[in-house]
Amino acid sequence: MTKRFPQRLSSRSALFLAIICGFLLLVWPARRLRSENFIFYFPDQHKSLPTEMMDNAVYLPLIPLLNLAGQVSGLQEKHNSLKVWFGDHQLEFRENKNKIQVNKASVSLTHPVRRSNGQWMVPTGFIPAVLPRITGQPVLYQHGTTRAFIGNVHPVSYSVELQNQPSGVKLLIHFTGKVSIQTAATNGKWIIFLQGPPVAPLEQEIQFQNPYVSRLDFDDQDGRPKLIITPTSNALNFYPQVSADGKVLSADLMKPPSPQQPVLAQKAPAAAAPPSPGAPPAALPLKPGAAAPIAAAPAPAPSLPVIVLDAGHGGQDSGARSQDGVLEKNLTAQMVQKVEGALKATKAYRVVLTRNGDSDPTFEERTLTANTARPALFLTFHAGEMGDRSPVIAVYTYRASSPPPANDKPLPFIRWDLAQQPEASRSQQLAQDLQQQFAQISGANAPQPMEAPVRQLRSVAAPAVAIEMGTLSPERKAGAIAQPAFQQQLAEAVVHAVQQFSPGGAKP
Predict the structure, then answer these.
(1) What is the 3-state secondary structure (H, E, C) of 320-388?
(2) Which residue of 44, 145, 315, 476 has the lowest C-beta tally within 10 Å?
(3) Maximum Cα–Cα distance for the chain, whole Å?
(4) pLDDT digits (tens, 9 = 90+) for 53-92
Protein backbone atom coordinates (compact mmCIF):
# COMPACT_ATOMS: atom_id res chain seq x y z
CA MET A 1 0.00 0.00 0.00
CA THR A 2 2.74 2.43 0.83
CA LYS A 3 4.32 1.83 -2.56
CA ARG A 4 1.09 2.46 -4.48
CA PHE A 5 0.18 5.68 -2.70
CA PRO A 6 2.84 7.88 -4.39
CA GLN A 7 1.80 6.55 -7.82
CA ARG A 8 -1.84 7.35 -7.13
CA LEU A 9 -0.92 10.83 -5.92
CA SER A 10 1.19 11.43 -9.03
CA SER A 11 -1.65 10.36 -11.33
CA ARG A 12 -4.14 12.59 -9.57
CA SER A 13 -1.71 15.50 -9.71
CA ALA A 14 -1.15 14.97 -13.43
CA LEU A 15 -4.90 14.86 -14.05
CA PHE A 16 -5.42 18.02 -12.01
CA LEU A 17 -2.60 19.78 -13.87
CA ALA A 18 -4.07 18.78 -17.24
CA ILE A 19 -7.47 20.20 -16.25
CA ILE A 20 -5.90 23.48 -15.14
CA CYS A 21 -3.89 23.77 -18.39
CA GLY A 22 -6.96 23.08 -20.47
CA PHE A 23 -8.90 25.74 -18.60
CA LEU A 24 -6.13 28.29 -19.09
CA LEU A 25 -6.06 27.59 -22.82
CA LEU A 26 -9.76 28.29 -23.00
CA VAL A 27 -9.73 31.55 -21.06
CA TRP A 28 -6.31 32.95 -22.10
CA PRO A 29 -6.87 35.95 -24.39
CA ALA A 30 -6.19 34.97 -28.01
CA ARG A 31 -4.70 38.35 -28.86
CA ARG A 32 -1.25 37.28 -29.99
CA LEU A 33 -0.35 34.60 -32.48
CA ARG A 34 3.02 33.90 -34.03
CA SER A 35 2.69 34.03 -37.80
CA GLU A 36 4.86 33.85 -40.92
CA ASN A 37 8.01 35.66 -41.96
CA PHE A 38 8.12 39.08 -43.59
CA ILE A 39 10.65 39.30 -46.43
CA PHE A 40 12.58 42.50 -47.21
CA TYR A 41 14.20 42.67 -50.63
CA PHE A 42 17.21 44.95 -51.17
CA PRO A 43 19.18 45.48 -54.41
CA ASP A 44 21.76 42.82 -53.52
CA GLN A 45 20.16 40.65 -50.85
CA HIS A 46 17.01 39.73 -48.95
CA LYS A 47 16.37 39.51 -45.22
CA SER A 48 13.45 38.27 -43.15
CA LEU A 49 11.81 39.09 -39.84
CA PRO A 50 9.23 37.04 -37.93
CA THR A 51 5.80 38.63 -37.76
CA GLU A 52 3.29 38.54 -34.94
CA MET A 53 -0.49 38.83 -35.16
CA MET A 54 -2.02 41.16 -32.59
CA ASP A 55 -5.65 42.27 -32.71
CA ASN A 56 -5.99 40.97 -36.29
CA ALA A 57 -3.05 43.08 -37.51
CA VAL A 58 0.44 42.02 -38.58
CA TYR A 59 3.28 43.45 -36.45
CA LEU A 60 7.06 43.54 -36.82
CA PRO A 61 9.75 44.04 -34.16
CA LEU A 62 10.75 47.70 -34.35
CA ILE A 63 14.49 47.68 -33.58
CA PRO A 64 15.38 44.69 -35.83
CA LEU A 65 13.30 46.31 -38.59
CA LEU A 66 15.22 49.60 -38.31
CA ASN A 67 18.56 47.77 -38.24
CA LEU A 68 17.62 46.01 -41.47
CA ALA A 69 17.11 49.36 -43.19
CA GLY A 70 20.04 51.20 -41.56
CA GLN A 71 21.60 51.59 -38.14
CA VAL A 72 20.01 52.48 -34.79
CA SER A 73 22.48 54.78 -33.00
CA GLY A 74 20.65 55.29 -29.70
CA LEU A 75 17.65 54.37 -27.55
CA GLN A 76 15.87 55.98 -24.62
CA GLU A 77 13.07 53.93 -23.09
CA LYS A 78 10.67 54.99 -20.34
CA HIS A 79 7.64 53.31 -18.81
CA ASN A 80 5.37 53.58 -21.86
CA SER A 81 7.43 55.54 -24.39
CA LEU A 82 10.51 55.05 -26.56
CA LYS A 83 12.90 57.40 -28.35
CA VAL A 84 15.05 56.03 -31.14
CA TRP A 85 17.91 57.78 -32.97
CA PHE A 86 18.28 56.45 -36.49
CA GLY A 87 21.04 58.24 -38.38
CA ASP A 88 20.08 61.93 -38.37
CA HIS A 89 16.47 61.16 -37.46
CA GLN A 90 14.70 60.99 -34.12
CA LEU A 91 11.60 58.83 -33.69
CA GLU A 92 9.28 58.81 -30.68
CA PHE A 93 6.80 56.05 -29.89
CA ARG A 94 4.13 55.63 -27.23
CA GLU A 95 2.66 52.29 -26.34
CA ASN A 96 -0.93 51.73 -27.61
CA LYS A 97 -0.86 54.96 -29.66
CA ASN A 98 -1.38 55.19 -33.42
CA LYS A 99 0.64 58.39 -33.84
CA ILE A 100 4.42 58.56 -33.73
CA GLN A 101 6.83 61.49 -34.03
CA VAL A 102 9.40 61.56 -36.81
CA ASN A 103 11.67 64.58 -36.43
CA LYS A 104 8.81 66.40 -34.60
CA ALA A 105 6.37 65.64 -37.44
CA SER A 106 3.34 63.55 -36.50
CA VAL A 107 2.77 60.38 -38.53
CA SER A 108 -0.38 58.27 -38.17
CA LEU A 109 -0.14 54.49 -38.39
CA THR A 110 -2.87 52.05 -39.31
CA HIS A 111 -2.72 50.37 -35.88
CA PRO A 112 -1.22 51.36 -32.53
CA VAL A 113 2.33 50.63 -31.43
CA ARG A 114 2.48 47.59 -29.11
CA ARG A 115 4.93 45.81 -26.83
CA SER A 116 5.22 42.02 -26.81
CA ASN A 117 7.63 39.97 -24.67
CA GLY A 118 9.71 43.08 -24.00
CA GLN A 119 9.92 44.11 -27.68
CA TRP A 120 8.44 47.22 -29.23
CA MET A 121 6.27 46.21 -32.20
CA VAL A 122 4.96 48.30 -35.11
CA PRO A 123 2.25 47.43 -37.66
CA THR A 124 3.22 46.84 -41.29
CA GLY A 125 1.77 50.28 -42.12
CA PHE A 126 5.02 51.61 -40.58
CA ILE A 127 6.89 50.40 -43.69
CA PRO A 128 5.39 52.77 -46.32
CA ALA A 129 4.61 55.56 -43.83
CA VAL A 130 8.04 55.92 -42.17
CA LEU A 131 10.84 54.00 -43.90
CA PRO A 132 11.00 56.26 -47.01
CA ARG A 133 11.30 59.32 -44.73
CA ILE A 134 14.22 58.03 -42.70
CA THR A 135 16.12 55.98 -45.29
CA GLY A 136 15.77 58.29 -48.31
CA GLN A 137 15.10 55.16 -50.36
CA PRO A 138 12.00 54.26 -52.39
CA VAL A 139 9.89 51.62 -50.67
CA LEU A 140 7.40 49.44 -52.51
CA TYR A 141 4.88 47.68 -50.29
CA GLN A 142 1.37 46.48 -51.04
CA HIS A 143 -0.94 46.42 -48.05
CA GLY A 144 -1.79 42.91 -46.90
CA THR A 145 1.32 41.22 -48.33
CA THR A 146 4.36 39.90 -46.47
CA ARG A 147 7.12 41.43 -48.59
CA ALA A 148 8.59 44.88 -49.21
CA PHE A 149 11.14 46.15 -51.74
CA ILE A 150 13.58 48.78 -50.51
CA GLY A 151 15.94 50.80 -52.67
CA ASN A 152 16.55 50.37 -56.38
CA VAL A 153 14.71 47.06 -56.61
CA HIS A 154 12.55 46.30 -59.64
CA PRO A 155 10.44 43.21 -58.92
CA VAL A 156 8.73 41.34 -61.70
CA SER A 157 5.11 40.30 -61.64
CA TYR A 158 3.11 37.88 -63.73
CA SER A 159 -0.28 37.04 -65.18
CA VAL A 160 -1.76 33.60 -65.77
CA GLU A 161 -3.90 32.01 -68.45
CA LEU A 162 -5.02 28.50 -69.40
CA GLN A 163 -5.24 27.03 -72.89
CA ASN A 164 -7.16 23.87 -73.75
CA GLN A 165 -5.28 20.78 -74.94
CA PRO A 166 -6.71 17.51 -76.33
CA SER A 167 -5.88 15.55 -73.15
CA GLY A 168 -4.81 18.22 -70.72
CA VAL A 169 -4.24 21.93 -70.33
CA LYS A 170 -1.40 24.38 -70.98
CA LEU A 171 -0.67 26.79 -68.15
CA LEU A 172 0.91 30.02 -69.42
CA ILE A 173 2.57 32.44 -67.00
CA HIS A 174 3.61 35.80 -68.49
CA PHE A 175 6.32 37.62 -66.53
CA THR A 176 7.16 41.31 -66.77
CA GLY A 177 10.87 40.50 -66.64
CA LYS A 178 13.30 37.69 -67.40
CA VAL A 179 13.31 34.64 -65.10
CA SER A 180 14.83 31.17 -65.08
CA ILE A 181 13.40 28.14 -63.31
CA GLN A 182 14.16 24.97 -61.40
CA THR A 183 11.43 22.42 -60.76
CA ALA A 184 10.65 19.87 -58.07
CA ALA A 185 7.71 17.72 -57.01
CA THR A 186 6.45 17.01 -53.51
CA ASN A 187 3.21 15.80 -51.93
CA GLY A 188 1.46 15.60 -55.28
CA LYS A 189 2.32 19.22 -56.18
CA TRP A 190 4.78 20.75 -58.62
CA ILE A 191 7.09 23.49 -57.40
CA ILE A 192 8.72 25.98 -59.77
CA PHE A 193 11.60 27.92 -58.20
CA LEU A 194 11.99 31.33 -59.86
CA GLN A 195 15.52 32.63 -60.27
CA GLY A 196 16.27 36.22 -61.21
CA PRO A 197 14.77 39.45 -59.83
CA PRO A 198 12.39 39.42 -56.85
CA VAL A 199 8.74 38.75 -57.57
CA ALA A 200 5.72 40.84 -56.51
CA PRO A 201 2.63 38.71 -57.29
CA LEU A 202 -0.67 40.40 -58.02
CA GLU A 203 -2.46 37.55 -56.30
CA GLN A 204 -0.97 35.19 -53.72
CA GLU A 205 -3.37 32.46 -54.75
CA ILE A 206 -5.28 31.80 -57.99
CA GLN A 207 -7.96 29.11 -58.05
CA PHE A 208 -9.15 27.46 -61.25
CA GLN A 209 -12.34 25.68 -62.20
CA ASN A 210 -10.56 23.19 -64.41
CA PRO A 211 -10.44 19.37 -64.63
CA TYR A 212 -6.61 19.31 -64.64
CA VAL A 213 -5.33 22.07 -62.35
CA SER A 214 -7.03 23.44 -59.24
CA ARG A 215 -4.80 26.28 -58.02
CA LEU A 216 -1.56 28.20 -58.34
CA ASP A 217 0.12 29.63 -55.22
CA PHE A 218 3.07 31.98 -54.78
CA ASP A 219 5.41 31.54 -51.82
CA ASP A 220 8.65 33.24 -50.79
CA GLN A 221 8.68 32.66 -47.03
CA ASP A 222 12.25 31.36 -47.19
CA GLY A 223 13.32 34.19 -49.50
CA ARG A 224 13.18 31.92 -52.57
CA PRO A 225 10.28 32.92 -54.83
CA LYS A 226 8.39 29.89 -56.05
CA LEU A 227 5.14 28.90 -57.72
CA ILE A 228 3.26 25.88 -56.42
CA ILE A 229 0.92 24.14 -58.86
CA THR A 230 -1.77 21.85 -57.46
CA PRO A 231 -3.12 19.41 -60.08
CA THR A 232 -6.50 17.76 -59.72
CA SER A 233 -4.95 14.30 -60.09
CA ASN A 234 -1.62 12.63 -59.37
CA ALA A 235 -1.86 10.79 -62.70
CA LEU A 236 -0.83 13.76 -64.85
CA ASN A 237 2.46 14.45 -66.58
CA PHE A 238 4.09 17.85 -66.14
CA TYR A 239 6.21 19.47 -68.88
CA PRO A 240 7.46 23.00 -68.01
CA GLN A 241 9.65 25.19 -70.20
CA VAL A 242 10.67 28.86 -70.44
CA SER A 243 10.65 30.91 -73.63
CA ALA A 244 13.90 32.13 -75.16
CA ASP A 245 13.46 35.63 -73.72
CA GLY A 246 12.72 34.23 -70.25
CA LYS A 247 9.39 36.01 -69.98
CA VAL A 248 6.90 33.20 -70.61
CA LEU A 249 6.69 29.98 -68.64
CA SER A 250 4.55 27.30 -70.25
CA ALA A 251 3.64 24.10 -68.44
CA ASP A 252 1.66 21.27 -70.01
CA LEU A 253 -0.45 19.21 -67.61
CA MET A 254 -1.30 16.12 -69.64
CA LYS A 255 -2.91 12.73 -69.15
CA PRO A 256 -0.31 9.99 -69.77
CA PRO A 257 -0.87 7.96 -72.96
CA SER A 258 -3.01 4.88 -72.43
CA PRO A 259 -1.08 1.55 -72.48
CA GLN A 260 -3.90 0.02 -74.54
CA GLN A 261 -4.81 1.84 -77.69
CA PRO A 262 -7.90 0.75 -79.65
CA VAL A 263 -6.92 -1.39 -82.65
CA LEU A 264 -8.77 -0.71 -85.86
CA ALA A 265 -10.00 -3.53 -88.06
CA GLN A 266 -7.61 -4.31 -90.90
CA LYS A 267 -10.43 -4.62 -93.36
CA ALA A 268 -12.00 -1.36 -94.25
CA PRO A 269 -15.72 -1.16 -93.49
CA ALA A 270 -18.23 -1.06 -96.27
CA ALA A 271 -19.00 2.37 -97.58
CA ALA A 272 -21.81 4.01 -95.74
CA ALA A 273 -24.05 6.88 -96.59
CA PRO A 274 -22.69 10.21 -95.41
CA PRO A 275 -24.10 11.24 -92.04
CA SER A 276 -26.75 13.87 -91.91
CA PRO A 277 -25.66 17.35 -90.80
CA GLY A 278 -25.13 17.47 -87.01
CA ALA A 279 -25.18 13.66 -86.61
CA PRO A 280 -22.23 12.07 -84.73
CA PRO A 281 -19.74 10.14 -86.87
CA ALA A 282 -20.19 6.38 -87.01
CA ALA A 283 -17.80 4.34 -84.82
CA LEU A 284 -15.17 2.24 -86.57
CA PRO A 285 -15.38 -1.55 -85.92
CA LEU A 286 -12.77 -3.16 -83.66
CA LYS A 287 -11.08 -6.54 -83.76
CA PRO A 288 -12.74 -9.15 -81.56
CA GLY A 289 -11.55 -8.75 -78.00
CA ALA A 290 -9.99 -5.34 -78.61
CA ALA A 291 -10.34 -2.69 -75.93
CA ALA A 292 -13.18 -0.25 -76.31
CA PRO A 293 -12.24 3.26 -77.37
CA ILE A 294 -11.34 5.56 -74.50
CA ALA A 295 -13.81 8.40 -74.09
CA ALA A 296 -12.36 11.81 -74.79
CA ALA A 297 -11.70 13.93 -71.72
CA PRO A 298 -14.00 16.93 -71.34
CA ALA A 299 -12.50 20.15 -72.60
CA PRO A 300 -11.07 22.29 -69.78
CA ALA A 301 -13.09 25.31 -68.84
CA PRO A 302 -11.55 28.50 -70.27
CA SER A 303 -9.99 30.95 -67.82
CA LEU A 304 -12.29 33.79 -66.82
CA PRO A 305 -11.77 37.28 -68.27
CA VAL A 306 -10.21 39.72 -65.82
CA ILE A 307 -11.83 43.01 -64.79
CA VAL A 308 -9.48 45.46 -63.04
CA LEU A 309 -11.10 47.88 -60.58
CA ASP A 310 -9.22 50.94 -59.36
CA ALA A 311 -10.45 52.88 -56.31
CA GLY A 312 -9.06 56.40 -56.59
CA HIS A 313 -6.88 57.97 -53.89
CA GLY A 314 -6.18 56.22 -50.56
CA GLY A 315 -3.80 56.46 -47.62
CA GLN A 316 -2.79 60.04 -46.88
CA ASP A 317 -4.44 61.17 -50.13
CA SER A 318 -8.08 61.52 -49.06
CA GLY A 319 -9.26 63.22 -52.25
CA ALA A 320 -12.44 65.29 -52.12
CA ARG A 321 -14.47 65.74 -48.93
CA SER A 322 -18.16 66.47 -48.42
CA GLN A 323 -19.72 68.81 -45.89
CA ASP A 324 -20.76 65.84 -43.75
CA GLY A 325 -17.26 64.33 -43.75
CA VAL A 326 -17.47 61.71 -46.52
CA LEU A 327 -13.99 61.21 -48.03
CA GLU A 328 -13.46 60.37 -51.67
CA LYS A 329 -10.95 57.61 -50.87
CA ASN A 330 -13.54 55.82 -48.71
CA LEU A 331 -16.38 56.39 -51.14
CA THR A 332 -14.44 54.94 -54.07
CA ALA A 333 -13.38 51.95 -51.97
CA GLN A 334 -17.02 51.28 -51.05
CA MET A 335 -18.04 51.58 -54.69
CA VAL A 336 -15.34 49.17 -55.85
CA GLN A 337 -16.40 46.69 -53.18
CA LYS A 338 -19.98 46.79 -54.46
CA VAL A 339 -18.91 46.39 -58.09
CA GLU A 340 -16.51 43.58 -57.21
CA GLY A 341 -19.29 41.67 -55.44
CA ALA A 342 -21.73 42.16 -58.31
CA LEU A 343 -19.20 40.99 -60.91
CA LYS A 344 -18.19 37.92 -58.91
CA ALA A 345 -21.83 37.00 -58.39
CA THR A 346 -22.12 36.41 -62.14
CA LYS A 347 -19.32 33.79 -61.93
CA ALA A 348 -18.27 35.03 -65.36
CA TYR A 349 -15.33 37.29 -64.40
CA ARG A 350 -12.24 37.36 -62.24
CA VAL A 351 -11.70 40.68 -60.45
CA VAL A 352 -8.33 42.28 -59.68
CA LEU A 353 -8.07 45.36 -57.42
CA THR A 354 -5.30 47.94 -57.75
CA ARG A 355 -5.42 48.81 -54.07
CA ASN A 356 -6.46 46.98 -50.92
CA GLY A 357 -7.45 48.68 -47.70
CA ASP A 358 -6.42 52.27 -47.06
CA SER A 359 -3.29 52.24 -49.22
CA ASP A 360 -2.26 54.68 -51.96
CA PRO A 361 -0.35 52.96 -54.78
CA THR A 362 1.35 55.24 -57.26
CA PHE A 363 0.07 55.64 -60.82
CA GLU A 364 2.87 53.33 -61.96
CA GLU A 365 2.00 50.66 -59.39
CA ARG A 366 -1.69 50.76 -60.34
CA THR A 367 -0.76 50.54 -64.01
CA LEU A 368 1.56 47.59 -63.36
CA THR A 369 -1.21 45.78 -61.51
CA ALA A 370 -3.62 46.41 -64.36
CA ASN A 371 -1.41 45.55 -67.33
CA THR A 372 0.17 42.41 -65.91
CA ALA A 373 -3.33 41.05 -65.22
CA ARG A 374 -4.01 41.22 -69.01
CA PRO A 375 -7.52 42.52 -68.33
CA ALA A 376 -10.60 42.49 -70.51
CA LEU A 377 -11.27 46.03 -69.25
CA PHE A 378 -10.29 48.57 -66.60
CA LEU A 379 -12.52 50.85 -64.49
CA THR A 380 -11.23 53.61 -62.22
CA PHE A 381 -13.62 55.29 -59.75
CA HIS A 382 -13.55 58.87 -58.47
CA ALA A 383 -15.86 61.48 -56.91
CA GLY A 384 -15.86 65.28 -56.81
CA GLU A 385 -17.59 68.59 -57.41
CA MET A 386 -19.98 68.19 -60.34
CA GLY A 387 -22.48 71.03 -60.00
CA ASP A 388 -25.79 71.55 -58.24
CA ARG A 389 -27.63 68.56 -59.63
CA SER A 390 -26.90 65.37 -57.71
CA PRO A 391 -26.34 62.49 -58.04
CA VAL A 392 -24.26 62.70 -61.21
CA ILE A 393 -22.44 59.76 -62.82
CA ALA A 394 -19.99 60.86 -65.50
CA VAL A 395 -17.86 58.57 -67.67
CA TYR A 396 -14.53 59.66 -69.18
CA THR A 397 -12.20 58.15 -71.76
CA TYR A 398 -8.60 59.19 -72.24
CA ARG A 399 -7.57 62.16 -74.34
CA ALA A 400 -3.86 62.84 -74.55
CA SER A 401 -2.62 66.16 -73.21
CA SER A 402 -0.56 68.25 -75.61
CA PRO A 403 2.27 68.73 -75.07
CA PRO A 404 3.00 66.00 -72.47
CA PRO A 405 4.28 67.24 -69.09
CA ALA A 406 8.00 67.99 -69.11
CA ASN A 407 8.59 66.09 -65.86
CA ASP A 408 6.64 63.00 -66.93
CA LYS A 409 8.83 60.03 -65.95
CA PRO A 410 8.74 56.66 -67.73
CA LEU A 411 7.22 53.75 -65.87
CA PRO A 412 9.76 51.65 -63.93
CA PHE A 413 9.03 48.27 -65.51
CA ILE A 414 7.41 48.58 -68.95
CA ARG A 415 6.92 51.79 -70.87
CA TRP A 416 3.14 51.96 -71.27
CA ASP A 417 2.96 55.66 -72.23
CA LEU A 418 1.07 55.01 -75.44
CA ALA A 419 -0.75 51.86 -74.36
CA GLN A 420 -4.23 53.40 -74.31
CA GLN A 421 -4.12 54.83 -77.84
CA PRO A 422 -4.85 51.52 -79.67
CA GLU A 423 -7.74 50.91 -77.24
CA ALA A 424 -9.43 54.28 -77.85
CA SER A 425 -12.38 53.05 -79.91
CA ARG A 426 -13.18 50.16 -77.58
CA SER A 427 -12.85 52.45 -74.56
CA GLN A 428 -15.35 54.83 -76.14
CA GLN A 429 -17.75 51.94 -76.76
CA LEU A 430 -17.40 50.82 -73.14
CA ALA A 431 -18.07 54.39 -71.98
CA GLN A 432 -21.20 54.56 -74.13
CA ASP A 433 -22.50 51.23 -72.74
CA LEU A 434 -21.91 52.43 -69.18
CA GLN A 435 -23.61 55.78 -69.77
CA GLN A 436 -26.71 54.06 -71.17
CA GLN A 437 -26.99 51.89 -68.07
CA PHE A 438 -26.35 54.79 -65.64
CA ALA A 439 -29.07 56.84 -67.35
CA GLN A 440 -31.61 54.19 -66.29
CA ILE A 441 -30.91 54.72 -62.57
CA SER A 442 -33.84 56.63 -61.13
CA GLY A 443 -32.91 60.21 -60.19
CA ALA A 444 -29.38 60.01 -61.58
CA ASN A 445 -27.96 62.48 -64.08
CA ALA A 446 -25.75 60.63 -66.57
CA PRO A 447 -24.31 63.00 -69.22
CA GLN A 448 -22.82 61.74 -72.47
CA PRO A 449 -19.28 60.31 -72.16
CA MET A 450 -16.49 62.86 -72.31
CA GLU A 451 -12.78 62.83 -73.08
CA ALA A 452 -10.19 64.09 -70.61
CA PRO A 453 -6.45 63.62 -69.90
CA VAL A 454 -7.13 61.25 -66.98
CA ARG A 455 -3.64 60.19 -65.88
CA GLN A 456 -4.69 56.74 -64.68
CA LEU A 457 -6.15 55.82 -68.08
CA ARG A 458 -3.17 56.86 -70.20
CA SER A 459 -1.05 53.75 -69.68
CA VAL A 460 -3.64 50.98 -69.48
CA ALA A 461 -3.40 48.42 -72.29
CA ALA A 462 -7.11 47.53 -72.32
CA PRO A 463 -10.47 49.27 -72.80
CA ALA A 464 -10.43 51.73 -69.89
CA VAL A 465 -12.73 54.42 -68.51
CA ALA A 466 -12.99 56.65 -65.46
CA ILE A 467 -16.31 56.80 -63.58
CA GLU A 468 -16.80 59.94 -61.47
CA MET A 469 -19.64 60.39 -58.98
CA GLY A 470 -20.88 63.71 -57.71
CA THR A 471 -21.40 65.94 -56.11
CA LEU A 472 -18.77 65.64 -53.39
CA SER A 473 -17.63 69.02 -52.13
CA PRO A 474 -17.18 70.89 -48.80
CA GLU A 475 -20.27 73.00 -49.58
CA ARG A 476 -22.71 70.08 -49.82
CA LYS A 477 -23.57 66.85 -48.05
CA ALA A 478 -22.71 63.67 -49.92
CA GLY A 479 -26.35 62.62 -50.26
CA ALA A 480 -27.31 59.68 -52.46
CA ILE A 481 -23.84 58.74 -53.67
CA ALA A 482 -22.89 57.71 -50.12
CA GLN A 483 -25.99 55.53 -49.67
CA PRO A 484 -25.55 51.74 -50.02
CA ALA A 485 -28.78 51.40 -52.04
CA PHE A 486 -27.58 53.86 -54.69
CA GLN A 487 -24.12 52.29 -54.78
CA GLN A 488 -25.69 48.88 -55.35
CA GLN A 489 -27.75 50.25 -58.25
CA LEU A 490 -24.63 51.72 -59.78
CA ALA A 491 -22.77 48.39 -59.32
CA GLU A 492 -25.56 46.47 -61.06
CA ALA A 493 -25.53 49.00 -63.90
CA VAL A 494 -21.80 48.42 -64.30
CA VAL A 495 -22.35 44.65 -64.55
CA HIS A 496 -25.04 45.09 -67.21
CA ALA A 497 -22.76 47.38 -69.21
CA VAL A 498 -19.85 44.95 -68.95
CA GLN A 499 -22.06 42.09 -70.15
CA GLN A 500 -23.33 44.23 -73.01
CA PHE A 501 -19.81 45.28 -73.96
CA SER A 502 -18.08 41.88 -73.75
CA PRO A 503 -19.54 40.30 -76.88
CA GLY A 504 -18.75 43.43 -78.84
CA GLY A 505 -15.03 43.64 -78.38
CA ALA A 506 -13.60 42.79 -74.99
CA LYS A 507 -10.54 40.60 -75.00
CA PRO A 508 -11.30 36.89 -74.78
Answers:
(1) CECCCCCEHHHHHHHHHHHHHHHHHHCCCCEEEECCCCCCCCCHHHHHHHHHHCCCCEEEEEEECCCCC
(2) 44
(3) 102
(4) 888 889 999 999 999 999 899 999 988 999 999 999 999 9
Q: Which amino acid is at 198?
A: P
Question: 10 Å Cβ neighbour count for 322?
Answer: 22
Q: Is-cis flag, bond preceding 471, omega within 30?
A: yes
Domains and CATH numbers, the chain: 32-150 (3.30.457.10), 158-254 (2.60.40.3470), 306-401+413-504 (3.40.630.40)
Using one digit for the tens of pLDDT, what is the confidence trace for 292-321? Answer: 333 344 444 457 899 999 999 988 888 899
For residue 80, give the DSSP letter: S
* Closest by CA position to 396, among listed 499, 468, 329: 468
Closest-CA residue to 104 (of 90, 94, 93): 90
What confidence tens digit (pLDDT) does each residue in 142-182 have? 888 899 999 989 899 898 888 888 889 999 999 988 999 98
Decide if 173 contacts 184 (C-beta within 8 A): no
